[in-house]
Design a protein that fits this description.
It is a single chain. α6 (262-268) packs across α8. Helix content is 33%, strand content 27%. The protein is of the alpha+beta class. β12 (247-249) and β13 (252-255) form a beta hairpin. It folds into two domains: 2-15 and 81-367, no CATH class; 381-485, Sandwich (Immunoglobulin-like), CATH 2.60.40. The strands form five sheets. A six-stranded mixed β-sheet has the order 1-10-11-9-8-7, sandwiched between helices. It has a five-stranded antiparallel β-sheet with strand order 5-4-3-2-6, with no helix packed on it. Strands 14-15-16-19 form a four-stranded antiparallel β-sheet, with no helix packed on it. The chain is built from twelve helices and 21 strands.
């Protein structure tokens, strides 16, 4: 899972526990969560914790309590479906009129549209999907090179690997809640995720500007289709540590886990040490499951994984081989997790943590990692809701309120959009603009305004801080028309 605005990034390591290798192919009849009888032809991939893991022909896994299975008949078992057949599955799931797809083996890239397209936009969609497909293939090549260098036990994917890109944040949020059951981080804080149940990778379209989130989630998908077993007891620190080890420069993957990821390395130097420790992340996954500590947990995961890859190479290779041998739905206690870890690496978690600052300092110096440039004081740069917003704010001497002005660029790769932009102060005072029908890649000015509106229930008054909130609508939609009549409340502050 990828966290939105970590300073960036987070896999839906959904809380179901592990699954495994093919055992048998049968026809199963069971009672689902709604009390309905279901019959599926599936392979039994694993059993444990009084649960069966059933894999259907499209690669999805159904978790069924053993007591809910009422009949099981021997059968040949489903053959994995083709890429063309996977397109059909996606069209049924999201509606054929809203789905556009591109196949680039082993990937099926799917775009779920927010609404109808004109003819010119259709050609842009094709180009966008082809670019995404090439990027995913590039990720696979870089991953495979690293995996072979570190002697991962690689296998070929059995099913087409699916990437679903949602143009609309609302559609992404709805799919996220449906897929996760609302467990773990809230949908609004998730930029993208790989689901072990569906075997699909899902992201917001806005995350395709840098491709960092698709890269992160693609590593999860590759690990569970080529190395690890889905729903095996794989520690979240390893899942997230290896995924954060890869870094993209635009659509080019130029950093792998044996090199320093500049973002996480610099964040590691600034986080507090008392909220999430290496001892915590090795023994349990709790810090990765909610909104509050997840950002820090991902940083610690990168730190720990990088330390092991670079300083304990031989032990790391053997540890990954042991992880790959873990079975679906197998259980490990916190003590067992820590014991296996320390046995594998021959040091305690505390000893590793104590040595990390020295090793990182040396690595930063050797790799010549520099901090990214920051905008000047009073200037904010925001990438949000398929837009890029540059905003300048000063205190208006006469009123004591914020005087703001700036510009907005439409970052959608496929169509013009109407935007609502709001600048909200720390005290809940705001001003806003409705900018209609902004062309693809076009930049428009946001004329200077004094923040004078007050959010419902906000204290009002002066403030030295502000945030930019952006939302978009299709230009010909009822929503855009309503915005032009009466601007909405800022995104995220709706009543």
């Amino acid at each position: 899972m990828s966290i939105r605005n970590l300073s960036l990034v987070v896999t839906a390591a959904f809380l179901f526990a592990g699954f495994g290798r093919p055992v048998a192919a049968d026809t199963f009849t069971y009672i689902d969560q709604e009390g309905e009888e279901q019959t599926v032809e599936a392979r039994l991939r694993g059993s444990g914790q009084e649960t069966f893991a059933l894999e259907t022909a499209d690669g999805q896994w159904v978790l069924v309590p053993e007591g809910n299975v009422i009949d099981r008949e021997a059968a040949k078992g489903p053959e994995p479906i083709s890429a063309d057949e996977m397109v059909g599955v996606l069209e049924v799931q999201f509606g054929a009129e809203r789905v556009r797809t591109h196949q680039q083996k082993p990937y099926v890239v799917c775009l779920v549209l927010a609404g109808p397209l004109d003819r010119r936009s259709e050609s842009r969609v094709r180009g966008f999907l082809q670019k995404a497909g090439r990027f995913m293939q590039n990720v696979e090549r870089v991953f495979e090179r690293f995996a072979k260098d570190t002697h991962f036990p690689l296998r070929e994917p059995e099913h087409p690997l699916v990437l679903v890109i949602f143009e609309s944040d609302a559609d992404f949020n709805e799919y996220t809640v449906e897929t996760t059951g609302g467990v773990g981080m809230s949908a609004g804080n998730i930029a993208g995720f790989y689901a072990k149940t569906t075997n699909w990778l899902a992201i917001r379209m806005e995350e395709c500007r840098t491709f960092q989130v698709p890269l992160h989630e693609a590593i999860h998908q590759l690990m569970y289709n080529r190395v690890l077993q889905r729903f095996a007891p794989i520690p979240a620190w390893f899942d997230e540590g290896i995924a954060t080890g890869f870094e993209a420069d635009g659509d080019r993957v130029d950093v792998h886990p044996a090199k320093i990821n500049s973002l996480y390395a610099l964040l590691a130097k600034s986080i507090p040490n008392d909220d999430v420790s290496w001892v915590d992340v090795v023994s349990n996954d709790n810090a990765f499951r909610g909104d509050i500590l997840a950002g820090e947990a991902y940083i610690e995961a990168w730190c720990l994984h990088w330390m092991l890859v670079t300083q304990h190479t031989d032990a790391y290779e053997k540890y990954v081989q042991e992880l790959a041998a873990r079975e679906p739905l197998q259980e490990l206690s916190s003590d067992e997790r820590t014991e296996r870890f320390e046995d594998a690496f021959g040091v305690t978690v505390g000893e590793l943590a104590a040595d990390f600052p020295r090793v990182l300092k040396s690595g930063l110096k050797r790799q010549k990692v520099k901090a990214p440039d920051s905008p000047p004081p009073g200037i904010s740069l925001t990438e949000q809701a398929l837009s890029e917003v540059k905003m300048k704010a000063v205190n208006d001497v006469a009123s004591g309120r914020l005087l703001v002005e700036g510009s907005l660029k439409n970052a959608s790769p496929i169509r013009p959009l109407t935007f609502h932009v709001a600048v909200v102060s720390g005290s809940g005072v705001y001003t806003d603009w409705v900018v209609d029908d902004v062309g693809i890649g076009k930049t428009v000015s946001l004329p200077g305004k004094v923040a004078a509106k007050v959010l419902p229930g906000a204290p009002g008054g002066s403030s030295r801080t502000f945030q930019v909130r952006v939302q978009w609508a299709l230009p010909d939609s009822d929503e855009a028309a309503a915005w032009k009549r009466s601007p909405p409340l800022p995104a995220g502050f709706e009543e």
